[in-house]
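Reopening this one. Same input as before:
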Amino acid sequence: MKLARTLVALLALAGCKSAGASADVKPETSARAATAAIARRTVGTSPGHVGAGTKLEVSKGHALGAFAAGCFWGVEDTFRQVPGVVATAVGYAGGTTEHPTYEQVCSHTTGHAEAVLVEFDTAQISYEQLLVVFFKNHDPTTMNRQGPDVGSQYRSAVFTFDDAQAATAAKVMAAEELQRAKKVVTAVSAAPPFWKAEEYHQQYDEKTGTHSCPLPKGLPKRSAI
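Same output, byte for byte:
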């Protein structure tokens, strides 16, 4: 059993080359990596007390967002650098299989997308601003593809937690489509159960030092890291 889990982890590292995180980059131990780590934000790892499809709950004044934009390693790392985000976790959303594993999701038989669950402080950042960051940091015009990653698990999607979020997502997506002058294929749907991914996927970029970029695109101008 232990060997099987190890093999799955190795396959994960070989297969998830995303939007920002290269799977063949080994964990850094240099002074430069250590300095970069000190400069980055410290963010929680249990948004909504997430578990395996469990009911999500947030603290007063906080809200949740769920986004899919390719391999979840780089997407999570991007959101963790957004002021106002207080916790993130990666997982699987939008499929039909309960308790999916990474290996099952990679088989493209479960219907899940690699997604990031984000808990944020509404006094510091709005849901609309998070959506702007989401759209500016991936290509929402490619169907089931981000860079070298191809398949439905890499689709662009927004999973909304109420009608207000759905309306805001539609508004921001329409504005993004006008700016790009190209059809945006991002799917917007009500948030399904969120299945937290295996531990080796959580905060992958932080664990390995393979950060996608020093600063996310689309941050509110008043914000600084």
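So the earlier flakiness isn't reproducible anymore. For the record, The CA atoms of residues 75 and 99 lie 22 Å apart.
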